[in-house]
Design a protein that fits this description.
Pfam families: AAA_23. InterPro entries: P-loop_NTPase, Rad50/SbcC_AAA. Keywords: Coiled coil. The chain is of the alpha/beta class. Among the domains are: 169 residues, P-loop containing nucleotide triphosphate hydrolases (Rossmann fold, 3-Layer(aba) Sandwich), CATH 3.40.50.300; 105 residues; 91 residues. It is built from 17 helices and 16 strands. Strands 3, 8, 11, 12, 13, 14, 15 and 16 form an eight-stranded mixed beta sheet that branches. The longest helix is centred in the middle third of the chain and has 61 residues. It is globular. The two termini are 25 Å apart. The relative contact order is 0.13. The site of magnesium ion has 4 residues, from helix 1.
Length: 685
């Protein structure tokens, strides 16, 4: 996807029509748009999302007032007024125009707008067609699930991975890498086929087959009911969490409760980190045992090996050379040890010759020495393992104690808050506690449901196996039975493929996030994308979880976005070369980011400004003058194909007119005019 042009008309702060050209030249992937507070940066980002998906980002207020206030006010009653956002882009050899528009006949001063309309046009070889189901087409080009990676607000970046975000991130990545197609086959298509065949076979097969198919059906229904319940539970968990957050926020805003609540928030954060640390330690413990645990049981065996080897060496039983001489002697004598004659050509003679040739003989001594060496190394390894396990246990204990302390402190704060002699505070605290209890309870129920589903899945596997193995007389039923077996096999193969591919994608993304992050962050923090696609940050490569600041969260988010777009691009390039279309999804995606520097320090801004343009082939950046100074501005400008200014026009008499310096030229930034609005102006470079 390659963005070409965005046209907005009477869209929120924009009065009349404004055009933003987006085509960039090679090596200069950036389009920079400067605007002061309220000029319309977030509005422009939303002009992209509204055109593509008909929605705004969460931070936009009064989302129903799409038409520019002035345009609405100017219109006579009964006249038609409209707002539009039109995005033109190129994708896989075709030109697309996406036009979203809302048109209303003015009947009152307040905007009462109908549903916006969408028109998508596709042009190939000069021929244009109206795309029938435009939204579906857009969904195929840039799925809405991916928009968090490609159209986003840098200030809100840190929320990308917290709370409910993680699951969405996993889904979005799966979409991007084409894994979700396999997932759908496993989840829907193949089981449906299997069910249909099973039902048909059951009718013909009778008896045992019928009984098994019925049992299978019953478990499947139970599982489906639990799945639905589990879904409902996770929705509830999110809803309860929102209530808890809202109450916490209100407590923070209350003068008397604020200090206690602040401490609690800090505690909760610490508690979360400690719990993660606890899990990590448990995992480390588990891994040490799984990989090296056996060493603990070799105690004694290794000493025996050493003693044996030493003994044989001392008794000179080992040197292989002597044994060779001994056999040579027997051959020359023509008699075996037991007195049997072994003349040349006899079976015994041949056997002895073979022995003599056997290279193993010469090896024996070396092998024994080797074994002896390994045995003594095992003793060292056992000592080290025990030491390590002891350390982990001590650390686990310490973390556990710390968790208990924090828990106790939290309970104490809750008690103190309850004691604050203000009705509001008590109510809020009660509410917070009520929903937090509900949340914890729902979490438990959710875990139980997941476990039940696993159990049922095992039961289903068992029933299917029995179904496949059941004896059937009817030939047609037998044929269907074999087909069920085939579908099950394919299903199993797809499951394996999904596992492998998911692990692969995770591994690659993990490596990339690490790379991009270390380019930007000055601390030795190491990000990790867990097998559940949760993004974590460690203080050092193998160390505990890092306590991250808002800015560090942002860098983490940026690294992730960068890694995702880098990877999508790489897959796309490979696809071009090898023509393996449909194998992977991938693709080139533009990045549109509002306030890319959010809370970042100047030092980080500098690194980010340098790294961003390397991540993707087109990057539209919306920022204010204060967000880009000195080196940051230099970096950005040197990567820019186009620069725009959102000139704020104000009607305020005493407002100071302002300019912004771009390429050593003063460009109007704030000017006076008849009414409040914004003008989008390109600055020639
Ligand atoms: N329907 C509308 N008509 C006129 N102005 C509107 C309309 N809807 C929103 N606005 C104005 O648009 C401005 C919001 O712009 P926006 O949020 O895009 O600013 P921004 O450049 O992102 O600012 P900041 O730097 O503070 O994030 C506000 O001043 C708001 O009053
Ligand atoms: Mg903004």
């Amino acid at each position: 996807m390659n963005l070409l042009k965005l046209t907005v008309e009477n869209f929120r702060v924009f009065h009349g029509r404004h055009v933003l050209k987006l085509d960039v030249t090679d090596g200069k992937p950036a389009v920079l748009i400067f605007g002061m507070n309220g000029a319309g940066k977030t509005t422009l980002l939303n002009a992209f999302t509204w055109a593509l998906y008909g929605t705004f980002t969460g931070d936009v207020e009064h989302q129903d007032r799409i038409i520019n206030d002035r345009a609405w006010a100017e219109a006579a009653f009964g006249a038609s007024v409209h707002a539009a956002s039109r995005l033109e882009f190129e994708h896989e050899g075709a030109l697309f125009t996406v036009l979203r528009e809302v048109r209303a006949v003015k009947a009152s001063e307040a905007q009462d707008l109908p549903r916006p309309t969408l028109a998508v046009t596709e042009t190939r070889h000069g021929e244009s067609i109206e795309v029938k189901n435009g939204q579906d087409r857009i969904e195929k080009i840039l799925p809405e699930g991916l928009r968090r990676f490609f159209l986003f607000n840098g200030e809100r970046m840190e929320r990308m991975f917290t709370g409910d975000g993680a699951g969405d991130v996993q889904d979005a990545i799966k979409t991007l890498m084409g894994l979700e197609i396999i997932e759908r086959a496993i989840g829907d298509h193949l089981p449906a086929a299997s069910r249909k065949l099973t039902a048909a076979a059951k009718k013909l097969g009778g008896g045992r087959l019928q009984q098994l198919a019925d049992a299978q059906e019953k478990v499947e229904q139970q599982k489906e009911a639990i799945r639905r319940e589990s879904l409902k539970l996770s929705e509830n968990i999110s809803a309860y969490k929102r209530e808890v957050d809202a109450a916490s926020k209100a407590l923070l805003e209350n003068g008397q409760a604020a200090p206690l609540q602040k401490r609690r928030v800090r505690l909760a954060k610490e508690l979360e980190q400690e719990k993660i640390r606890y899990q990590e330690l448990q995992e480390k413990h588990r891994r040490a045992l799984a990989e090296r645990g056996f060493i603990a049981f070799t105690s004694g065996v290794d000493q025996t090996v050493i003693d044996l080897a030493e003994g044989m060496r001392k008794r000179q039983e080992l040197p292989a050379g002597i044994q060779r001489d001994f056999i040579t002697g027997l051959l020359e004598d023509g008699y075996c040890m037991c007195g049997t004659p072994v003349p040349a050509g006899s079976a015994g003679h041949t056997a002895l010759l073979e022995r003599l040739e056997n290279a193993g003989l010469a090896d024996v001594q070396a092998r024994w020495m080797n074994l002896r060496g390994n045995a003594s190394r095992l003793i060292d390894a056992r000592k080290a393992l025990l030491e390590e396990l002891r350390e982990i246990s001590a650390e686990l204990q310490a973390v556990e104690a710390r968790i208990n302390d924090l828990d106790a402190e939290e309970t104490d704060i809750a008690r103190q808050l309850k004691g604050v002699d203000v009705v509001d505070v008590q109510k809020l605290e009660d509410r917070r506690k009520e929903y937090d209890d509900k949340r914890v309870e729902a979490l438990g129920a959710h875990r139980d449901a997941e476990r039940d589903m696993e159990r049922m899945e095992e039961e289903l596997t068992r029933l299917r196996r029995q179904f496949r193995a059941a004896k059937v007389e009817d030939a047609e039923a037998h044929r269907l039975q074999r087909q069920v077996a085939l579908v099950d096999e394919v299903l199993e193969a797809f499951r394996r493929i999904l596992d492998v591919r998911t692990a692969e994608v995770r591994g690659q993304l993990d490596a990339r996030v690490k790379g991009v992050f270390s380019r930007i962050c000055i601390k030795p923090f190491t990000p990790e994308l867990t097998p559940d696609f949760e993004l974590r940050l460690h203080a050092t490569a193998a160390g505990p979880a890092a306590i991250r600041s808002t800015g560090e969260n942002q860098i983490l988010g940026l690294s992730f976005v960068g890694a995702v777009s880098e990877m999508a691009k790489k897959i796309h390039d490979r696809k071009q070369k090898t023509d393996e279309a449909n194998l992977d999804e991938g693709g080139i995606y533009p990045v549109v980011m509002d306030a890319p520097f959010g809370n970042l320090d100047i030092e980080y801004q500098d690194q980010v400004a340098e790294s961003l343009p390397q991540l993707t082939s087109q990057i539209v950046t919306l920022l204010s003058q204060s967000q880009a100074r000195g080196r940051v501005l230099e970096h950005l400008q040197s990567a820019a194909s186009r620069v725009y200014v959102l000139r704020s026009v104000t009607s305020k008499e005493d407002a100071k007119e302002q300019t912004i310096t771009i390429n050593d030229r003063a460009v109007p930034y704030v000017t006076r005019g008849d009414f409040e609005h914004t003008v989008l102006e390109e600055v020639s470079l």
